[in-house]
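Progress against Task 2.4 (sequence-to-structure conversion) is shown through the following example record, which the project officer requested during the mid-term review.
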Amino acid sequence: MPIGTIFRNIETREILTELTTEGSFFLAAKGGAGGRGNACFKSSEKQAPKLAEAGGEGEKYTFDIGK
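Structure tokens generated for the chain above:
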């Protein structure tokens, strides 16, 4: 995002952060925990299982992003 980008809460219009310097960042929402993949279900009988479990739900927010 360019320097000067502002993140606002879309409901309250409150400014959450402004990117003021190069290299600055804003963690908008945390992702969910990863699920278990094929390697977790591997056994001596099934060397390449085609099974996986979904991960956890991440955070969801809505922002107004602008200058």
